[in-house]
């Protein structure tokens, strides 16, 4: 039973469906630079926190933390390798931001590894602003770039 999860599916139909967390966690484990372990995903499923999950079938997803309203936090955005560079990341981002605005959020934040050029380009193209660098933000000691957007 998934509680308190804001979710919506398929950017065209805008239906509220239950995300397939098993599938999303599998994509995360295989393709995300900093994958969560199984327990992290179980915590999300059983959490009383609020999340926005957007996804495109067989393509990718984004996951947002909504507990600090009116500021949302991007936890993950991922497009499968074979679907990259076709606009899916931009679509997930734009539709997520639109949904956040609809939900009353005024701003959003994220951290990204400073050398993740693909992600940083996507964020800049989607009107995110660079904020500051956090030294040693990641577990391997690499730096994180903080970014924010006004919605
Ligand atoms: C970041 C990511 C989600 C982008 O998804 P995508 O579907 O390929 O992105 P899009 O096709 O919508 O591209 C949007 C913009 O992002 C930028 N971009 C995407 N891939 C890029 C790459 N390999 N190098 C440089 N810029 C890139 C470009 O500015 C692009 O705009 P353009 O097509 O007009 O040039 C995808 O590369 C990914 O899943 N990466 C692994 C997971 C990850 O690192 N997530 C972010 C962690 S914080």
Description:
The chain has 151 residues and is α/β, with parallel strands linked by helices. The protein is 29% helix and 30% strand. It has helices at 21-31, 38-46, 88-102, 117-125, and strands at 5-9, 51-56, 60-65, 71-79, 107-113, 129-134, 144-150. The chain has a seven-stranded mixed beta sheet with strand order 1-2-3-4-5-7-6, sandwiched between helices. The longest helix has 15 residues, at 88-102. Bound molecules: coenzyme A (COA). Residues 32-33, 77-79, 84-90, 112, 116-119, 121-122, 125 line the site of coenzyme A.
Helix content: 25-40%
Question: So, the CATH homologous superfamily?
Answer: Gcn5-related N-acetyltransferase (GNAT)
Anisotropy-based shape: globular
Based on the coordinates given, report the CATH architecture.
Answer: 3-Layer(aba) Sandwich
Radius of gyration: 15 Å
- What are the distinct ligands in this entry? coenzyme A
Number of domains: 1
Largest sheet, spatial ordering of strands: 1-2-3-4-5-7-6
Q: Estimate the strand proportion.
A: 25-35%
CATH-derived topology? Aminopeptidase
Low-confidence stretches: 1-5
In whole angstroms, how far apart are the ends?
A: 31 Å
| Separate helix tally | 4
CATH class: Alpha Beta
* Average pLDDT level: 88
Main beta sheet, described?
Answer: 7 strands, mixed
Order of helices and strands: EHHEEEHEHEE
Overall structural class, as computed from helix and strand content, comes to: alpha/beta
């Amino acid at each position: 039973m998934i509680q308190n999860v804001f979710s919506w599916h398929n950017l065209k139909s805008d239906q509220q469906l239950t995300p397939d967390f098993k599938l999303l966690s599998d994509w995360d484990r295989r393709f995300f630079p900093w994958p969560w372990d199984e327990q992290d995903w179980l915590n999300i499923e059983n959490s009383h926190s609020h999340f926005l999950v957007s996804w495109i079938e067989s393509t990718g997803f984004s996951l947002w933390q909504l507990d600090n309203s009116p500021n949302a936090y991007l936890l993950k955005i991922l497009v499968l390798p074979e679907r990259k560079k076709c606009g899916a990341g931009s679509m997930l981002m734009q539709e997520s931001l639109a949904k956040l605005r609809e939900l009353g959020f005024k701003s959003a934040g994220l951290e990204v590894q400073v050398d993740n050029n693909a992600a940083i380009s996507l964020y800049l193209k989607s009107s995110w602003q660079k904020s500051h660098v956090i030294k040693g933000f990641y577990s391997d000691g690499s730096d994180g770039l903080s970014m924010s957007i006004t919605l």
